[in-house]
């Protein structure tokens, strides 16, 4: 019998599985696809390689949770620091999001002058820096009593940030600045949406500050694509089973039976890297199904439309751009397109003289339910966004050697989920309402972007660290 079975090799699943294996626990990691990483994987199409969705690795710096976890595994990723983290383009305004606070504020004042910029962004910087220095908070969710017992660990955080935790972000920002132009408001909302997966009216200012301050942390480009991070992180695992689908899980008194199409595996502990609102379909017993079904409301249908391109060019580009328009793009819920471009010298993900481009924009999965017009609207949005990228970044149409797109339906087919980006930490979905890494089911645990603490590398890794504490490993 295995000590641990981990289902799903996304950020959380691959990290905790590699850690448990490195610590000597008999661990098996299952992944449905032939490649690891889920929304953060790297895949091939038409002879070229692309990042699936997520393209940036943040939190890999001294004192931060991602580096702490990688060090605990005994793994050093192949990374290139990125500064600026993002180049924001809004009409004729080009604002690099530099890591250095003063450099960024100078750039900001050039395009969106306001006397309160230095004070506001210093506050954002201070909140993020202070938060990442705090340790000791942990979250238990297996019972009401355990939840009550764990919440006092957040008292130092609550005391330090209470003003911002209890303030709506939209109201706080507008009260702080006094007057904001519609253009700068769109700038702020686009920055918040990248990280928080929600707009300012839905979240508190603490969450907004961490989102806006994302680029003040070290961010990195993964050589060969983010998929190489997962491959290298799990390279020493003794039992990794890619291209293996778990069809059913049976809960026994002291263990679980995991069924694939070819065999059944027995494990004492089970860790799922599936979404909290979809996991009930793996089980048949009423208690487990009832636990998951209480979180069905978290399925908010927020997703992404992805555009993938390979471009042959001798130009140099930044690693990441955000292109902000005035109005929403058709079949989306956003006016901001996030564009990631491979490093000029990275000939693993793209041939020499070529660039691999992954572009994403927020959409609602229900906008893609019309089967009669699905192909037509997919092609329309693909052409619109590819033209926007070319016009904005000076790419000629004849330089595009490969181009295709993916919708929420595509993701549902390949990674079994159409909601992407995790569950936003909104005012309605904050502690103590947030799903935890533990469950009321004995030895059943969760990691990933739909449970504590949040999405992205730092958010998911906080959940992995929390799970390590719960498992006492």
Describe this structure in words.
The protein is an alpha/beta fold and 473 residues long. It has 14 helices and 19 strands. 34% of the residues lie in helices and 21% in strands. Strands 1, 2, 10, 11, 12, 13 and 19 form a seven-stranded mixed β-sheet that branches. Strands 8-7-15-16-17-14-18 form a seven-stranded mixed β-sheet, sandwiched between helices. Strands 5-9-6 form a three-stranded antiparallel β-sheet. Strand 12 and strand 13 (264-272) form a beta hairpin. It is globular, with a radius of gyration of 22 Å. The protein starts with a strand and ends with a helix. The mean pLDDT is 94.
What is the compact description of this entry?
Helices cover 34% and strands 21% of the residues.
């Amino acid at each position: 019998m295995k000590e641990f079975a981990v289902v799903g090799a996304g950020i959380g699943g691959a990290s905790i599985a590699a850690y448990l294996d490195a610590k000597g626990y008999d661990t098996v990691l299952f992944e449905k696809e032939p490649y690891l990483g889920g929304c953060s994987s790297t895949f091939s199409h038409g002879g070229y390689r692309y990042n699936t969705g997520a393209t940036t690795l943040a939190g890999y710096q001294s004192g931060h949770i991602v580096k702490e976890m990688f060090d605990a595994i005994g793994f050093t990723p192949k990374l290139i620091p990125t500064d600026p983290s993002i180049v924001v383009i809004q009409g004729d305004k080009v604002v690099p999001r530099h890591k250095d606070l003063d450099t960024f504020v100078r750039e900001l004042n050039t395009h969106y002058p306001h006397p309160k910029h230095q004070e506001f962004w210093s506050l954002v910087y201070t909140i993020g820096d202070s938060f990442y220095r705090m340790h000791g908070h942990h979250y238990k969710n297996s019972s009401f009593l355990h939840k009550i017992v764990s919440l006092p660990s957040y008292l130092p955080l609550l005391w330090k940030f209470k003003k911002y935790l209890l303030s709506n972000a939209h109201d706080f920002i507008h009260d702080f600045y006094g007057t904001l132009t519609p253009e700068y408001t769109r700038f702020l909302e686009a920055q918040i949406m990248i990280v928080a997966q929600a707009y300012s009216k839905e979240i508190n200012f603490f969450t907004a500050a961490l989102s806006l301050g994302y680029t003040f942390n070290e961010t990195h480009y993964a050589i060969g694509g983010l998929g190489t991070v997962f491959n290298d992180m799990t390279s020493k695992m003794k039992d990794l089973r890619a291209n293996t689908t778990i069809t059913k899980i049976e809960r026994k008194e002291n263990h679980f039976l995991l069924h694939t199409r070819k065999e059944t595996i027995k494990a004492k502990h089970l860790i799922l890297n599936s979404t909290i609102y979809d996991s009930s379909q793996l089980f048949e017993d009423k208690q487990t199904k009832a636990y998951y079904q209480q979180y069905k409301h978290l399925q908010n249908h927020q997703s992404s439309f992805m555009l993938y391109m390979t471009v042959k060019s001798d130009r140099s580009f930044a690693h990441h751009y955000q292109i902000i328009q005035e109005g929403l793009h058709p079949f989306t819920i956003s006016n901001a397109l996030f564009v990631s471009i491979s490093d000029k010298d990275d000939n693993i993900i793209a041939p020499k003289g070529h660039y691999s481009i992954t572009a994403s924009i927020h959409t609602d999965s229900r906008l893609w339910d019309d089967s009669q017009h699905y192909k037509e609207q997919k092609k329309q949005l693909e052409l619109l966004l590819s033209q926007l990228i070319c016009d904005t970044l000076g790419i000629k149409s004849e330089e595009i050697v490969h181009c295709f797109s993916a919708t929420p339906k595509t993701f549902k087919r390949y990674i079994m989920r159409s909601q992407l980006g995790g569950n936003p930490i909104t005012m309605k979905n904050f502690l103590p309402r947030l799903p935890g890494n533990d469950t009321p089911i004995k030895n059943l645990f969760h990691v990933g972007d739909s449970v504590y603490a949040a999405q992205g590398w730092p958010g998911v890794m906080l959940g992995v660290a929390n799970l390590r504490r719960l498992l006492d490993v």
